[in-house]
Amino acid sequence: MTAPILVGTCNWADHEDFYPEELERGRRQRDKLSFYARYFPIVEIDTTFYGIPKPPVVAGWVDRTPDDFRFNIKAYRSLTGHERESGTPRPPTREEERDFLAALEPLRDGGKLTAVHYQFPPWFTNRPAARESLLAARERHPDDIVAIEFRHRSWFEGNAWPETEELLRELDFVYVGVDAPQIGSATAPPHLAITSRRLCIARFHGRNWRTWYKRGETSGDRFDYLYRAEELQEWVPAIRAASEQDVPVHVLMNNNRSNYAVVNAFDVAALLGSPLPRPPEPILATLRARDGREPDWVARSPDPPEVRPADADADGEEEDQLSLRL
Cα–Cα–Cα angle for 100, 42, 120, nearest 5°? Predict the structure, then answer.
């Protein structure tokens, strides 16, 4: 028996050369999520790392997606130790914890929350204080699926990985396997592991080693990389193996420069035999420019379902998942 494999991207608003021109202006930008959901069954909400949305905003995202659409949501930065004061990580305030947990409620109530994604920073190294932070995350989310992404090699090197894997299993955390530039200590090795029967995640950051440690104006400056299909193929056996063990898998593209994440999401879905609707013309143009031809799977792809327009918000609040500068 095989479990489903869902393919999508991290964020929906930043993709260039994907959305119709009319969705790139004014309040029509809110319709980007409905358009995105015509093609993909899942998205990772990543702007919650930078700011905590109000529950009515999150409820709007739930309302504008199909019943079977799913969200992963990234934990706010103070919850993962990214907020620092005088060089020392600042713990989250009670208000930050309260507000982030409140933002999850519309996703839970709508049956669309899959995982809460904790991406820890490079200074979150393998030491007792860090392990206590993992315990605190489990206490904060006693019933949620919690996904853990490390950004320091101390969790993997030497004899560390077996202990790391055992800790994640004890806490029923989902390990997030990442594809990223293999340079320096602030990256994880390409590895997929099942540490929870509830979910397995593969997350792709690109392989641009020139920009991995560069602080750009936007996250797209750092994740400026268009994968070739043969590079994505390297992950296919491990992803399929997880699915064949009846563990659901999420494959999420985070190379958010131009339309690269969208293009590569279509690539990997085709490689995995998890077909998506026929891509819009700008995506086909990027595929033809990269490969010199249109992939064979395009001819077999069904047309996307019709998109329903979003209703105006009752409270008038802006709902867009904004493109935020780092």
Answer: 45
Residue among 134, 250, 246 nearest 192 (CA): 250
| Cα torsion 272, 278, 280, 281: sign | positive
Residue type, 312: A
d(CA 317, CA 308) in angstroms, rounded, equals: 20
Phi (first) and psi of residue 240, to 5 degrees: -65, -40
Provide the β-strand partners of residue 74: 117
Averaged pLDDT of the chain:
92
Closest CA to 14 of 323, 230, 249: 323
C-alpha closest to that of 125 among 152, 164, 92: 152
pLDDT tens per residue, range 242-263: 999 999 999 999 999 999 999 9
Domain 5-300 top-level CATH class: alpha beta
Burial level of 222, CB count in 10 A (0-12/13-18/19+)?
Answer: buried
Residue 184: CB atoms within 10 Å: 12
Rounded CA-CA distance 65/237 in Å is 31
